[in-house]
Automatic annotation (TrEMBL):
GO cellular component terms, A-Z: cytosol
Chain sites annotated for binding Mg(2+): 247
Protein's UniProt name: Delta-aminolevulinic acid dehydratase
Protein species of origin: Pseudoxanthomonas indica
SUPFAM superfamilies per the UniProt record, alphabetical: Aldolase
GO biological process, one term: protoporphyrinogen IX biosynthetic process
Length: 341
């Protein structure tokens, strides 16, 4: 005897069938709460003084770019409607110093890169990192005393000079990533005083002392300078959450237009708290180590690259992000375009 095929029959229980809304594509689309688009993405890029491109071994698919190559990437980003690039210069070892003077050189690499992009692609947003670590011989984000402690107020003066130099080059957004106290207020006051009233500040407000930045430090060449030291005296303890709310509140009072949480995926609880508490433009940085980790799994065939990347980026939006800095930004924008048909 052949058994009768299983039949769905009316049940007295459950009364609620949430699967009804998940049954068909049309109703899944109707109740979808968040949609990732290219508008949500910011692409971080490494710029070097050399010609052409150089691979970053711990970040497969990411290269350091000459300004000529950067312009090609800027063109792709514009074409894909990715709103902005975030620039990270790789300083030549001989240009590094104790006081990081190269950081505010109007003819420095970051400044030249900004001018080149704004001239060719004026509509593309350009973000620069305000911090001294690419320029210091010791790899710290600020100026140190004899004991190696990063001095706050002297560093803030240097950061102000760096931010003004970026503003003079025409940058749209300066992004202080240094975690010194009071730097947002100081940078804002200086920008206003110099007439740069449209220069936006994206504050790395809740930036944690994370081990996930390792591949970035390889990419900008600061890992060797930093050696075995750490950034625990200024970046936040990964164990803390209330402190992030305090930091974001201060940066907003001091004049930040946008706030950022960093790293990303392991810190989405912080994003959600920040968004709920302040309701301001909130960003997160899916950092180099997160990228490296996913790429390693993709390379082994352990995870599906397109599906996992888009899922991860959508999770940032669900957590409350208005935008995501991601090394996957251009690939994600391509996949999203393909999906639209
Ligand atoms: C430097 C800076 C870092 C990152 C962005 N800006 C590294 C650090 O603080 O050591 C990390 C980005 C990444 O890991 O992708 N101020």
């Amino acid at each position: 005897m052949i058994a009768a095929p299983p039949q769905e029959t009316a049940m007295a229980f459950p009364h609620s069938r949430p699967r009804r809304m998940r049954r068909d594509e049309f109703s899944r689309r109707l109740m979808r709460e968040h949609v990732l688009t290219a508008d949500d993405l910011i692409y971080p890029v490494f710029v070097h003084e050399l010609a052409g491109r150089a691979a970053v071994p711990s970040m497969p698919g990411i290269e350091r770019l000459s300004i000529d190559e950067l312009l090609k990437v800027a063109e792709q980003a514009s074409e894909l409607r990715v709103p902005a690039l975030a620039l990270f210069p790789v300083t030549a070892p001989e240009a590094k110093s104790l006081q990081a003077e190269a950081a505010w050189d109007d003819n420095g690499l970051a400044q030249r890169a900004v001018r080149a992009i704004k001239q060719r692609f004026p509509e593309l947003g350009v973000i620069t990192d305000v911090a001294l670590d690419p320029f210091t011989t010791h790899g710290q984000d600020g100026i140190i005393d004899d004991s190696g402690y990063v001095l706050n107020d002297i560093t803030v003066e240097a950061l102000v000079k760096q931010a003004l130099s970026h503003a003079r080059a025409g940058v749209d957004i300066v992004a202080p990533s240094d975690m010194m106290d009071g730097r947002i207020g100081a940078v804002r006051a200086a920008l206003e005083a110099e007439g740069f009233i449209h220069t936006r500040i994206m504050a790395y407000s809740a930036k944690y002392a994370s081990a996930f930045y390792g591949p970035f430090r390889d990419a900008v060449g600061s890992a060797g300078n930093l050696g075995k030291s750490n950034k625990f005296t200024y970046q936040m303890d990964p164990a803390n959450s209330n402190e992030a709310i305090h930091e974001v509140g201060l940066d907003l009072e001091e004049g930040a237009d946008m706030v950022m949480v960093k790293p990303g995926m392991p810190y989405l609880d912080i994003v959600r708290r920040v968004k709920d508490e302040f309701g301001v433009p909130t960003f997160a940085y899916q950092v180099s180590g997160e990228y490296a980790m996913l790429k390693a799994a993709y390379a082994n065939g352990w995870l599906n690259e397109e599906a996992c990347t888009l899922e991860a980026l959508t999770a940032f939006k669900r957590a409350g992000c208005d935008g995501i800095l991601s090394y996957f930004a251009l690939d994600a924008a391509r996949w999203l375009r393909k999906a639209q048909g």
